[in-house]
Amino acid sequence: MEQRIAITTLPVEREYRERHGVRHLLGAAAWQRLPEAVRARFVETAADVTYAGAFEVVSASGLGRFFAWLGTLVGTPVVPRTGANLAARVTVRATRDGVEWKREYGWEDGGKSVVTSTKLVRDGELIERLPARLNMPLTVREENGVMVFESRGYFFDLGWGIRLPLPAFFSPGMTRVEHVDLGHGWFRFTLIVVHPWFGDMFFQTGRFCAMEEET
Prior knowledge:
This protein is an alpha+beta fold. It has one domain (14-209): Calycin beta-barrel core domain (Lipocalin), CATH 2.40.128. It contains 5 helices and 12 strands. It has helices spanning 14-20, 23-26, 28-33, 36-42, 62-71; strands at residues 49-60, 83-94, 99-106, 112-122, 125-129, 134-143, 146-151, 155-159, 162-165, 174-183, 186-195, 199-209. The protein has a 10-stranded antiparallel beta barrel. A hairpin with a 4-residue loop joins β2 and β3.
């Protein structure tokens, strides 16, 4: 059943978005193959918005939950819990550093978890900045009308342009995020993380919609 939940739309300074859009990384042809609704969500001048909906599945392997628990010591890059049909919000806003994505999970016991990351473009490279100075370079492409982000390893940003690569064995694995338009304002967000040696680590999928603010 679709939930209609009010959102708050905030003004945004245009120049921030124009620095951090993904349209030029995709290329004109791939950008035009995306549904109009997807282009509207990711266009450089899109306003700040909160999407409301639910995660139908939030799952993790035993090792994945251990990685996630370790992550809570440095800022929770991924939630350390699992569940189903969880009320959730995804807030997207432009900042001076990039575009901040904040996922809020409401657990069955009333608890909440928040995961925040920032996507930015540096020298033509799309990077997702996680807590503890951990960074995840990303590729972005279009697959049959779906916007897909995939990780290309991890590194710690030590400042002054110095990167310390995180060995693949110690990483959570390759991350794949899919943004699928469902029509009528709804989209599906799916996150999959697979470790090169230990296999499936995390899987999350949910449906979200940005609604006009109710008065």
